[in-house]
Amino acid sequence: MHQSERVGILIVSSSILGNNARRRFTEEALSGFMLIDRFAPVVFVTTQGTATRRLFTLAHELAHVWLGETGISTVNDALVVEGHEIERAYNRIAAAFLLPAQLFRQRWIAEAGLVPPLRIEKLARGWKVRRAAVARRARELGLLPEDVACELLEQFDR
């Protein structure tokens, strides 16, 4: 976060809606958003939800800043992503940022003795990301067959 702020990106975290401490953002309603400003873009990440979700949301919203597009994230990305390929692209950018390809491949191979669900669980804990992010990244890098990835993603999203 400090690196982003050093280059002029304002990052704000809160769960309070407006001035009323009794009114809070719900994780289902909003994970984060960003506002484009040429001089001081603003990224907001709610403090509701898990640390892994907040980290992914921050990376996703920073991708919006890097590419110059305003956006909103919810926990159920299907609500926002449905029909919006650009949101999927921001999710892929966030995953690439949090799970760099070369290092990810090395760690994936190092855990070759584990069946995919256990391997994904271990890597997710180590990287501090959701299991779904690891499964999607492994699929994207050709490390996890499409059918296995789809089956696991269905389990993780329940």
Supply the key terms.
8 helices; 158 residues; 15% strand; alpha+beta; two-stranded antiparallel sheet
Task: Please give a quick description of this structure.
The protein is an alpha+beta fold and 158 residues long. It is 53% helix and 15% strand. Helix 2 crosses helix 4 (85-98), helix 6 packs across helix 7 (131-140) and helix 7 runs antiparallel to helix 8.
Account of the protein in words:
- It is a single chain.
- The chain is α+β, with helices and mostly antiparallel strands and 158 residues long.
- The chain is built from eight helices and six strands, in the order αβββββαβαααααα.
- The chain has helices spanning 2-6, 51-67, 77-81, 85-98, 101-110, 116-127, 131-140, 146-156; strands spanning 10-14, 16-17, 20-24, 32-35, 42-46, 71-73.
- Residues 77-83 have low confidence and may be disordered.
Secondary structure blueprint with pairings:
Layout: H1 2-6, E1 10-14, E2 16-17, E3 20-24, E4 32-35, E5 42-46, H2 51-67, E6 71-73, H3 77-81, H4 85-98, H5 101-110, H6 116-127, H7 131-140, H8 146-156
Parallel strand pairs: 1-5
Antiparallel strand pairs: 2-3, 4-5, 4-6
Helix pairs in contact: 2-4, 6-7, 7-8
Gyration radius from CA atoms, angstroms = 16 Å
Average of pLDDT: 82
N-to-C order of helices and strands? HEEEEEHEHHHHHH
The helix fraction, in percent, is: 40-55%
What structural class should be given to the helix and strand makeup? Answer: alpha+beta
Output the number of helix runs. 8
Largest sheet: 4 strands, mixed
- Low-confidence parts: 77-83
If strands are numbered along the chain, what order do they take across the biggest sheet? 1-5-4-6
- Our estimate of the beta-strand percent is 15-25%
Shape: globular
The total count of strands amounts to: 6
> Distance between the terminal alpha carbons, to the nearest Å?
31 Å
